[in-house]
Amino acid sequence: MASIMIRKNDQIMMSLVHYFVTKENYSPIHVQGVKDEIWLENLNGPYRVIRISCNRVINEEQYNYDMFKMEHIIKQIKRKTLSLKMNALNICLDMSDRVKYSEHGNIETINVSSLNEIKKNSALQEIFPNLKDELIDSKDGLDLIINVTNDINEKTEKENKLFAKVFSPKKIIFTKLIILACIVMYIVVGIKDGNFLSFSATTLAMLGGNNLMLVQNGEVWRLLTSAFLHAGLIHLLVNMYSLAILGTQVETFIGKWKFLFIYLISAISGNLLSLVFSASNVISVGASGALFGLMGALLYFGYHYRLYLSEAIRNQIIPIIILNLLIGFTISGIDNVAHIGGLIGGYLAAMAIGIDYKSAKRDMLNGWIVLVLYIVFLSVVVFFFK
Known about the structure:
Layout: H1 8-23, E1 27-29, E2 37-41, E3 49-53, H2 60-80, E4 88-92, E5 107-111, H3 115-120, H4 122-127, H5 131-134, H6 141-167, H7 174-193, H8 201-206, H9 212-216, H10 222-225, H11 233-253, H12 256-276, H13 288-304, H14 306-330, H15 336-353, H16 361-384
Parallel strand pairs: 3-4, 4-5
Antiparallel strand pairs: 1-2, 2-3
């Protein structure tokens, strides 16, 4: 079989792309208007963006212009991925040794012209210690193309299967059960109160409404039961409609048991923060604190899948959260403090139990620590300082 000759720099580029994609979990980025360069990203990598360029750079003016273009592209990537800070590695394969280059902002440049130089580069070895042994070094162009293509396609296929597993429709269980429980409790309260349009505070308190004095007296179960009670028909319909939408998404994306944990923790944390600012004669009920917790969980999930959901986060999730909080601050009778408490609790609960195939153990441990401290702090304030 005849060998296919490819340019030396193209061979180096293919070897580097193969290593970063298959060994370091980087993914190619489609960047319009570029030629003879490849962009890779891994938002959890030591460099969040890696650019490998075969473009010829012969003087400092050309290098500075190249850096200007690279910084512009990185700004676009930051907007897309909702990133405030982004470090990048610029690997130049065809830059003159006479060019004096330096670090531009968060962009570090490395000038190499052969695989041997790459393997001996101390900066690359420090960050990517396996690079030396894992680089494909083949003189046969066809063999290189086949190996690189097959390995990258295999990795891409595995990632697509994981992606499909996360986003594919699933059987919704706990969302429907919670909606059913809220409807049943609404009927029970209506029978007890003798009215099915709006309920008295006395009836709601009797059946599990959240109240500072009663919780302080040991009835802590009210922190949970109040999330299944509603003050009237409109209150119930609005919350159940929201739960049907948000609950279905969280239960699908994160999982049914994790959804249940997030929902209950959000309800408890929302009600605890509500009691911190509540008077002793106030009875509060409703699932809205838990619903805001689901928004917080979606926000955390979307952050991990922001390459796919950045538009949804920016144009849907965040505006909905802000709009609902603004409504809560402008309309009387809405327990907006519970909304904020649930939002924080849901975000921390999602962080603690993690997102499948995305969360690192360190992040989950930090999530548990902050979540426990958050709940303990609110509990101490409610029981010892109110």
